[in-house]
Amino acid sequence: MSDPEHVLDRLRRIEWLERESAPAATVLNEVRALLADAEAWVRSEGHGNAAAEAAVAALRDALDGGEETALAAERTLVA
Questions:
Q1: In angstroms, rounded to a whole number, what is the distance separating the alpha carbons of residues 58 and 33?
Q2: With a threshold of 0.85, does the pTM exceed it?
Q3: Mean pLDDT in each 10-residue stretch from start to end of the chain (79 residues)?
């Protein structure tokens, strides 16, 4: 499977998990894996694609910023 196919497959899996109301931690793990797949794709395409690099950086920032929020929400739902 090519890098773009890995990214698309991961996105489909995340959408499915959200539809199935999967636990936040499960979805977050898939988002982390999506970031790794996207980084691999950018590396395979070469470091000249500013748009691709910016997209991966934005995903990384969103993940870093949202991790505590997602975990707090999960704790709130469990409590």
A1: 15
A2: no
A3: 85 94 94 89 74 76 66 46
